[in-house]
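User: Please predict the structure of the protein below. I'd like the answer in structure-token form so I can feed it into my own downstream comparison script.

Assistant: Understood. Taking the following sequence of 383 residues as input:
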Amino acid sequence: MRDVRSWKYALVLGLAALVVGCSSKDTKELPPAELPKFTAEVQLKEEWSRSVGVGQGKTYNMLQPAVDGDTIFAADVEGKIVALDRYTGKVRWSKNLKRPISGAVGAGYGQVLVGTLQGEVISLDSASGEEQWRTRVTSEVLAAPATNGDVVVVQTQDDRLIALEAASGNHRWIYESTPAVLTLRGTSTPIVTNQLAIAGLSSGKVIALDTRRGLPIWEQRVAIPTGRSELERVVDIDGNLLLSGGTLYVSAYQGRVEALDLESGRPLWQREASSYGGVAQGYGSVYVSLASGTVEAIDERSSSALWSNDALARRQLSTPAVFSSYVAVGDKEGYLHLLSQVDGRFVGRIHVDRHGLRARPLVVGDWLYAYGNGGELVALTIR
């Protein structure tokens, strides 16, 4: 059964990219839009770059790096994990787990956490890279584990949420959920606060659980399956959730972008959208990369579109990130684009990795870290 589901994941991934270009059986897939020309207003400076093994691999992994303090952690699909000084790129330690990593990287409270295709969660000491514990869960782990220092929460391919004791890896609780028949390949990374574990499910729902016992506190539907075919009914929440203050932001494929009240799950606003990534937020706006390749800015007060840039159509964009006064987004050819937060115009561009740029750009202060599909990790600043 697992092999069948894995095949379905790959199927939907491939077909999702064609939806915007195929209006009928006779319509051929349209190629990615050509890169638009513009006069650069911002220069991106490469501070350092390092190769992290083979990178993301060929199965659409989303191995997002993580920063904890002045260290950045990154992993490749074959099991290599590196810890680097985030300002210089100097290697602090490197470890080969000899396991196919598919969920990476979670970091914090002295731990580095990854999940594997073999259904394991592995914790390493963030200072030395020494293994602390290794625990088997119910199925593949396709997103980074998350921790609050007391509990580690992981979402598995079969839509279960599993809580492990942060100190030992022992099981604390498990929340059962029925996955959709057909989904995108991947899951969102849970958010863990002191009291709540929050995750997006393949059914189009967001669930908040008590971190101590795993009891549901609230759930909210972000997308409702419609259509006659299973493909048309895919409403997976695949992109990372975003928590800002007391507001939770979430987007769903063939669903909506929504802002929810963290404590109650009550919708604050919503807007129809289809996205397989998450959202970015800043300066009173929410930014989302739509499945079509359009980047859109949404006013948090009115939920209306402030601007829309469709010049990157069919370029399979990453989740956007707010970087200084700009919106940064990667594409399938490995370009990182900077757009103005004011009107969405292009202001800068740099090529990162010829194999593509799938993972969301990671922004920490005045630094941006881009991790290419081929394993190139680049630190950038604005000149």
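That's the full token string. Residues 1-26 have pLDDT under 50 and may be disordered.
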